[in-house]
Records
---
Amino acid sequence: MKIDERHLVQLAAVAETGGVTEGAAMLGMTQPAVSRTLSMLERRVGEPLFIPGKRPMQLTPLGQQLAIQGRSILLASRKAVDIVRSFQSGTSGRIKVGGVPFFMDAVISQMIASFQLKERDILVEQSYGNMPDLLNELESSQIDMAITPIGSAELGADFEFQPLLPGRNVLTCAVGHPLLRKRTLRIEDIVTYPWVAPLPGSPLVLDLHNILITLGISELAIRYSGGSLLSVVNYVASTDALAILPHSVVFSFKGQDKISIVPVDIPQPERTLGIITRRKTYPNPAGRKFRDHIVGAFKDLKTIIERHEKSIVWGQGPFLPERDR
């Protein structure tokens, strides 16, 4: 025996409202159409579904059991409609975002939190990676978007780039570091102290290499490497070590009395932090809403960081050797 699921839904509607007319109205159907359906269902099962003469209508034991199944179908249908509506409006869904570790931990995680204060039904899955890995994950649809700094090289035609923040690195040390008490700095000063190495694969590796070339330094005393952002910050704050970090990352620790900026110019990268997405992908309204939130948050952050940068009394030009001072 096969029972049409639509017939069970109509039975459940009549049972819920207590009448055929009311049940038909709830489903957006006519009363005669629902009456015919119930008659067909009774003939199909060979048993009465309603107790004769009862008002409001009352189900027989068999009718009650079938109505329970119909109610489950009706609730599932309503839930499906709600899911479609919330997906299309961007109020629910899942977003998979990957990015370079230090930016994700220091900056993006806070923006995810502020986003979900407004959009509590959207799941955000965060992952880490550098540029080549992130592009591969975008290509294979493992992530919806990547937040990473890129250089002047153009992306492939399959990708779009939304710029967020120009690249800007700073020399970082502990609050109270001896370098902060010097009026002028020599190359010999920074060579004296140990350094923290950037994470392997990070763009900061190339940045540090360019700084060494520009300043004519053959090597530095690397004493710590491979740490997460928090471990690097804690290490720098507890030692006399130096580290190159993005200004926005250092700014996120402002007010915590841990790390400070050594106010000297260093060679800057020709990169821009931004959002990379695929041009052709499945629609994800929640993803678009999240991207708009990140773009707006970075507009505010950029203004604040620029104000902070102007408040710092920077040294005149890069480090100079002792003989040129």
---
Amino acid sequence: MHAAERESLILDALRLSGFISYRDLEAQLDASPATIRRDLTRLEEHGHIVRVHGGAKVAASTTVTPAEPPIHLSGRPFDQSISENLVQKQAIGRAAAALCGPGEGIMVDGGTTTLQMCPCLEGLNLQVLTNSLHIVNALLPQAGTRILLPSGTLFREQNIILAPAGEDSMPHFHAPKLFMGAAAVGPRGVMQQDVILVAAERRLIDRAEQVILMVDSSKFGSSSGAIVCRLDEVDTLITDTGISAEAADMVRQAGIDLIIAQD
């Protein structure tokens, strides 16, 4: 990732809340702490930001305004993605639901693959924290399932609720398992196409004991996007039978428990 691209991502994150922490920057950018410090120095020299304890904030003179969040997220709208590889996603959803125990509290990140586990949760009487209105709608008919939502801005194309980087919008909730998807998985880690998604998923990861990644086999091999987490931060990865031998080796060598769901 070039310096100009990193600086653009930093300013995009600041546009939402006016502040971003060093921890969030390290999670979102494919760069070393030293590189991030140099980026912040350049932005400060140009008058865009002011470095403060724990991170950076918007400079008073900058044109970056936290009052106007972006209207769209990067990536394809939910309705265009939901039918892609649907059979594989349904198999992955069934395998993910099988990992849930009765009465558990879990977190389910928004996505077209995580959505497919919802029908299989009927009767488990779970407590589910999710940022996805699609998942809320899928769980509403289940009388025994308790649903929690974070606060934030609603992004209509994905029907997902996201808060700015640096803002703690989650209820006081800790869960043994987080189920999440990704735009891509490669040697550099788990990736998403939008820096706002990265910040939201990092908050979920920090509240979970186990990270369970749900991705169909088409997501392997691409290296584009902002990094959500390293591979060694993932505990279990569920995918379909189309995964290549090379991708399976990469997952296992990272110490991840690989589950291949049968169609």
